[in-house]
Design brief:
It is a single chain. The chain has eight helices and nine strands. By secondary structure, the chain is α/β, with parallel strands linked by helices. The chain has a single domain, classed as NAD(P)-binding Rossmann-like Domain (Rossmann fold, 3-Layer(aba) Sandwich), CATH 3.40.50.720. The longest helix has 28 residues, at 97-124. The structure holds 5-hydroxy-NICOTINAMIDE-ADENINE-DINUCLEOTIDE PHOSPHATE (NJP). Residues 13-20, 38-40, 58-61, 82-85, 106, 110, 133, 135-137, 178, 180-181, 183-185, 188, 209 line the site of 5-hydroxy-NICOTINAMIDE-ADENINE-DINUCLEOTIDE PHOSPHATE.
Length: 249
């Protein structure tokens, strides 16, 4: 990857769909060279070609994949830790250990791996920014959601801890905690069950990926002394993780 020395580089994980893809497009419009990472490389390549970015295969649960991805980056100014999601919806008494492992590996350890690998270069940039996309689930609990809420709480705590540890270093930290956003999130959670995924957004107006991407774009375009610490964003139709206004109710 050969770039002019003054080109700022933004890395977006989970850029093959939803919030990550929309964020890649928004940051490219703001002048960043965007490096898009995810497992579905074909999708990344399509978007990268459209926005003049770079597509690189990345599995945040795999140490070797993270190493290979990070090694080729010439510099890093912005890291968007977005790869993640939920798998399943079950009470603790019926918890599927593999689903929990997936959520912890992807949301928590994935964010840890990427952040740890890229921190030196973010500091070196002289004006680094780490955006971590957590969730309302990082602030509350709901029935049948402990696998996801515990993973998002842990991801949030990892991110928030850095705010103190990096004090005095030129790196800003922003946590974005969205409510319901209509992406592939529910399709993944319900393991490809399209009908069930659709019902999550029925009778309400959810956020769309672009809504969140624009907020990340705003964060990334503030002057370097301004740190937006946490942003919680929900649809108007959502009060909390469990209460929605639905026309179908
Ligand atoms: O979901 P989706 P969102 N290594 O499924 C990638 C949080 N959030 O955009 O690898 C690398 O469209 C996957 O790519 P691929 C949520 O927890 C959402 O809504 O090709 N990448 C895809 O690009 C998550 O942290 C809602 O399958 C991996 C992306 O992650 C973030 O928002 C609410 C990966 C997921 O895109 C973006 O999710 C909320 C891996 N091992 C928080 N595994 C919501 N949508 O309602 C997955 O509170 N990815």
């Amino acid at each position: 990857m050969i770039l002019s020395p003054d080109t700022r580089v933004a890395v977006v994980t989970g850029a093959s769909s939803g919030i990550g893809e929309a964020t890649a497009r928004t940051l490219a419009k703001q002048g960043f060279h965007v490096v898009l990472g995810a497992r579905r490389i074909d999708r990344l390549e399509t978007t990268a070609a459209e926005i003049g970015g770079t597509a690189l295969e990345l599995d945040v649960t795999d140490e070797d994949s993270v190493d290979a991805f990070c090694t080729v980056l010439p510099r890093v100014d912005v890291l968007v830790n977005n790869a993640g999601g939920a798998m399943g919806l079950a009470p603790v008494s019926e918890a599927d250990l593999d689903d929990w492992r997936w959520m912890w590996e992807t949301n928590v350890l994935g964010t840890l791996r990427m952040t740890k690998a890229l921190l030196p270069r973010l500091i070196e940039s002289g004006d680094g920014l780490i955006v971590t996309v957590t969730s309302l689930a990082a602030f509350s609990v709901y029935d049948n959601g402990a696998g996801y809420t515990s993973a998002k709480h842990a991801e949030g705590l990892l991110h928030r801890t850095l705010r103190g540890e990096l004090l005095g270093k030129p790196v800003r930290l922003t946590e974005i905690a969205p409510g319901a956003v209509e992406t592939e999130f529910s399709l993944v959670r319900f393991k490809g069950d399209e009908e069930r995924a659709k019902r999550v957004y029925e009778g309400m107006t959810p956020l769309v990926a672009q809504d969140v991407a624009e907020i990340i774009g705003f964060v990334a375009s503030r002057p370097s002394h301004v740190n937006l610490d946490q942003i919680i964003v929900k649809p108007r139709d959502q009060a909390n993780s469990e209460r929605f206004h639905r026309t179908t109710d």
